Amino acid sequence: MENRHAIAVAALTLIRFYLSSGIGHLGAGRMASFERWDDVVRQTIIYVDRELAPGQFGDVMEITRRTQANDPEFERLGRLLGALRAVYGTASFTAAEVHSAIGGAWTGVGSSTAVDPRRAELADVIRELTGGRYQGKPSIDSIGRLLTYRRDRLASGMRIVGEHDSHRKSTRWHVESVDSASKDPSATIVPWLRAAIQ
């Protein structure tokens, strides 16, 4: 990339132009897990789209939402997060605890045994996410991999977060709601970027 320096200068110039305008947030909400990026890059793109090149770029978050709306994996992730939240609330859990929780629901399919509907939903969505590969219920390791693959991915205003417990040699998971409240963009700019644009 022989033009790398020129591109970086142009990008920083646009960011500085946006921040010095004093307009603040233009786009609704914030991209979860990418708050700093949202404050600097996304808001600059929206500003350029509205003020300098109308209709040329759009809002990255709106484009992302439209793309996710047509993604069946995204819909299943939302169902998984909702089912985990229904079973565990805000409490943490392990893959082994999920394995145990879906046990009766997994084997209870088609039987007259009363099954907690929240656990049945959790078993159903895990069955969908594993593509029905398991005649019996999936192993604890398989459930752990399923959760690990979806770590920090956002759907339905939630994400699954894991923290490794080295003492127990397992990961404790919990589903958290993602705060999309707007903040002053200048308050969250990374220090090197702030220094570069001043």
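That was protein one. Protein two is written in the same sequence-then-structure order:
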Amino acid sequence: MQIVRIVLAVSFVGVIFSMTRCGEVQHHEQIMNLVELHWDQTSEDYSKYRPGYPDDYFLLLQKLDIGLKNQDILDLGTGTGALALPFARQGAHVTGVDISKGQIDATKALASQRKLKIRFIVTKAEDTNLFNGSFDVITASMCWGYLDQKKMPEEAARLFRKNGLLLIISLNWERDGDTIAKRTGELLNKGNLYKLTAPMN
């Protein structure tokens, strides 16, 4: 298994690939029901308003052999398809998994509108029940920190083909250079009831 590590800054967002956690998640098992409920409630807004990755980003990934035509890709925590939809548009065979039925339903609608063929499954990323050695690439966009840090690497290793690639990425605001992003971050900190991630300081 090969892990892709890159840092790319675009406009006022930063695109970060790393093996570090997206945020420190404490009491993992106790909060998972709250997390699932949260994603269901945000699905419609995410599909309409959440920014995706820039087009240049996918060109970069292709140079790194990710998102190629006929490649089998598993997108963990697929959400509203920030990675799944563009990869499918490029001709990859994409499977998107998410614990939230609301997120999957929202992404199915987007895929249908764009006439893209993607297999969606409502399931835990750590226990997909998919066949061994099924994927060339496994991706995790803005979700790795929510996953079980012991079980998930084991499940990924089981699902990989030889020389599989693991891409862990987060789309983050560079708040210092943008007034709107800075104020939004302050509001998020103020209303962060569940404290799922480290404070945005």
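Residues 28-49 form the longest helix (22 residues). Keep this in mind for the problem set.
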